Structures are given as structure tokens and as C-alpha cells.
Prior knowledge:
The chain is an alpha/beta fold and about 325 residues long. It has helices at about 20-30, 55, 75-95, 105-110, 120-135, 135-145, 150-155, 160-175, 175-180, 200-220, 220-230, 245-250, 255-280, 295-310, and strands at about 5-10, 30-35, 60-65, 95-100, 190-200, 285-290. The chain has a six-stranded parallel sheet with strand order 3-2-4-1-5-6, sandwiched between helices. Helix 2 links the parallel strand 2 (about 30-35) and strand 3 (about 60-65).
Amino acid sequence: MPRDPLLLVVLGPTASGKTALSLHLAAAFKGEIVNCDSVAMIRELSIGTAKPTAEERACAPHHLFDIVDPTAYTTAGEYARAARTLIQEIRRRGTLPIVVGGTGLYLRALLDGLSPGPLRSEQLRERLRRGSRKKGPGYLHRLLARLDRKSAQAIHVNDIPKVIRAIEVCLTARRPMSEQWQAGRDPLRGFRILRLGLNPAREELYERIHRRGREMFERGLVEETGQLLAKYGEAARALNSLGYRQAVKLIQGRIDRESAVRAVEQAHRNYAKRQMTWFRREAGVIWMSGFGDDPAIQAQAGALVESNLRELT
């Protein structure tokens, strides 16, 4: 009886080298890369997202990058449906699907499924957005904490779209969203899942995060943010993302350039901590102590993939 085909997942904190490792594995095992980073899905956001470059994307097929308008937002459920469809298509082509990214909720929705949430209410969302503009993002996060403390702990105060969706789910379903996550899930079937996690030394990771933050400003993060502001104004929800949020403050004269750089570094360090807290709760992850561009880590990952593929034959 044939066994289920392999699905490879590469996860880890920001700046840990997930792109480098996924490209290495895609070349070695005829793979196609499926994005699992919510910000990398958004068009016109390039410098602040650390997406694979055009040269990197030419090395292997890449999917679910640059498909969402800067004024829009994709829920975890919508992402999971699109990614599952893609993974089945890759399977039929006889190539290896490689899911890569650091958005833990999206990955959980893809692999474990989420309970069916209530439909969107644009009227409620707009009311919540007005409240956020009037009273600040902390107002919505405090409201969510009263409705669902667990969800509030998992969602950053400045991630307005996710906070709004969580409040919407709580109010519409009249029960905490965290409780709904546990009910009626539809886990991914038909694949043998190999989860590889990158866990570099914290101080080395922070050094890379600092270097990447400064490089973003050198490469034109502020100019890119200014163009998005001019084109979309306040409708560009994507400008609440890490890096862009700080660049907006710089453009508005609320902070100076050096303060903006330091704020980006700190925000990405905090994000990396939250990512690792989330991923450590994921079952079945094989953790590798290093960066994805380290040849030793690439060899270790390659051996694990090869071993799993042999077991399927």
C-alpha cells in the first residue's frame, strides 16, 4: 500500500535563514516553495518584508507571494484554503511541497485546521477601526483581553487586522475565539509532514536582526513607505507591519531616523521571541541549532528529508 507523500515545513524566527534553507532543499529534492508569512503575501511591500529576491525565486517555483492588495487582509482560514489547494497541485505534479514561513497561526490553520469562524461583518469591522483611530490600538487590544484573554496574549497589540478579526469572532459567535480554535478542526490529511525548525543562538540571531534592520533603511525602506502612503493613505493596512510602522512615524516627524532604526530592531527582536514561544508549542518539530544558510545545517536538513523520502519508497 503506497504511503502518503511528504510535506516539508521549514519554520523559525525572523532572520533565521528560512529562505536560504528552503532554496537549498528545493534544489536538492525538486521542491516548490509555498509561502507561510502573512506580510510576504502583500504586494508592493518589498524592502521591509525580506521576501525572496527575483533571483532567488528563479531558482524554484514560489507560491502565495505578492497576492494581497496593501489595503486588504487575509485571514488564517483563507490562507489555509489557498495553501491546501496549492499543496495538492504540487503533489499531483510529483514535486515536493515546501511550506516556509514564520506566521504561526497561518501554519496551524494549514496543518491542524481551524474551527469554522463566523462570516465577516464589515459594519462591525469599520466601527472597530474607527475606535482604533480615535483611541489608539491599545483600546482594541484591551477590549479583546476582556473578551478572550488567551487570544489577546497571542496577538500583538499593533496587529490591528488580527485584533479586529478576533473581536469580531468573539462577538459574533458569543464565545472566545480561543475556545473555537479547539472545536470542529479539520486537520490536513494525505501527507506525511516533516517539520524542520531553525533555532540559532539568540545573541547571533539578534545581531542578524540588527543588521537586517539597518540594511532595510539603507535600501530605501522610508522611500518605499512614502510611496505607499502617497498611493493608499490610511487605507494601507499593511503599513501597520513591522518596519513600515516605524518608517511612517519617521515620515510624519514623530521620531528621528536613528530612533526609527532602533525601534525596528527592537520590534523584530520582540517578534522573534513571540515566534519561538509559539513554535515551541508545535508538536513534532525537529529543531536544528543554527541558521539556514549554514552548510552544516543544510546538510543536516537534507539528510532528514532524504531519510523520510526513502521511507516512502
